[in-house]
Design a protein that fits this description.
7 helices, 0% strand, mainly alpha
Length: 163
């Protein structure tokens, strides 16, 4: 797939209706991340990662969800390709909320790690994740971007085969 065909496919998808849907999903995802962070921080939404990383994650996740909704509503695509983008979009948003407040030290995650690895190793993992939150957010955004390209590729190929 060339970049021009992906661009054309994205332009076909993003009518006013889907642009509005994208903005709505982005607002909801940003709120979800904020709520998860504030719950972990006892009511205070304090991001331990630069806010730009949060914006990039929210933007990529909302674009992926919008394109996935379009693909789901458009008939003819293989089911697992349609749903993988939607699932990844929601999963990276929730993970962003958990890790955004350094959720690696949240009670649920650190208890689970302590059970699996032992308390010393759980603290080590917690510290490593806390020190590299930018990389974690970048990796989640990169997964979303790769899935956006893959979904656009599938949609572009499907429209070429029909036409």
């Amino acid at each position: 797939m060339s970049i021009s065909s992906a661009y054309k496919t994205a332009r076909q998808i993003y009518t006013a209706k889907y642009l509005l849907l994208n903005v709505l999903i982005a607002a909801i995802y940003y709120k979800i991340i904020g709520v998860i962070i504030s719950v972990q921080q006892f009511g205070v939404a304090f991001y331990s990662v630069p806010i730009g990383f949060v914006y990039v994650l929210v933007a990529s996740a909302s674009v992926l969800m919008t394109i996935s909704i379009y693909a789901i509503l458009k008939s003819g695509l293989v089911a697992n390709l349609r749903y993988s983008g939607a699932v990844s979009s929601a999963a990276t948003t929730i993970a962003g909320g958990v890790f955004g407040a350094c959720g690696c030290s949240s009670a649920l995650l650190s208890s689970g790690l302590a059970l699996l690895l032992g308390s010393g190793e759980a603290m080590l993992v917690s510290t490593l994740v806390a020190e590299r939150l930018g990389i974690v957010f970048g990796a989640m955004s990169l997964v979303n971007i790769i899935l956006i390209a893959s979904t656009l590729n599938n949609l572009s190929g499907k429209s070429k085969r029909k036409g």
